Amino acid sequence: MKKALMIVSVLAIAVISTACINNIAVQELNNKAAEFMQKGDYESAMNRLQASIDLDATMYETHYNLGVAAINAKKYDKAIEALENGIKIKPDYADFYYSLGVAQSEWADEINDQANEKLEDDAATAENVNERNVLMEAEKRTDAVESKTKANELKKSASENLKKYLEMKPDCEDKATIEELIKECDDFINGKDDTLSKAEE
Fold first, then answer.
1. Are 192 and 146 found together in one domain?
2. CB-side neighbour CA atoms (13 Å) of 198
């Protein structure tokens, strides 16, 4: 019995030691990521933060910082994934919803801009009106419509997340700015900011 207790206590000490080593490594990775963020090297910051999450995925702050770094690097899919993972850990942290809304809105704008450019390029390369109409009705138009649908879904989610942030922090300093962003998202969804449709005409 004494031998069994001794083995268990040795294992417990080994687990505690490993946890301490992991905490130190996580802290070092997070500190290095912060340095990279300050320098504007968001890719390196993302790499450090992802390594930190690989060691300890329970720290919601690391997920949040990864999301912010990814937004700055314009890697919106990675930002959304990191922020959603953080929400699973700490759903009452309001800043997750703000950053998630920003990531979704900016990605929607990027998708919409790319679709508009594609439509304009197709129209410019068409030799005559008939060819232009064929191009606009064909596969390229379908891609643009799919992009528009994706952008609308992102704007809808962005609006919901930003509204949730305001519910959680009704007296935040940047309330007017956030309300303006919500209005832009809602206008986009309702077609009031429908640059893609205008480009199709």
1. yes
2. 8
